[in-house]
Amino acid sequence: MKISVLKQMMAAVVLSTVWLVGMSVRAQAQDHGRDHERKKEMKRERKEAKHERHENNGHHYGRISDDHYRVHFGREHEFRMVRYRRVGRYRRFVYGGYSFGFVQPWPAGWRRDDHVYVEYVQGGYFLCNPRRPGIRISLTLF
Question: Looking at the 3D structure of the chain, how many domains does it have?
Answer without folding.
Answer: 2
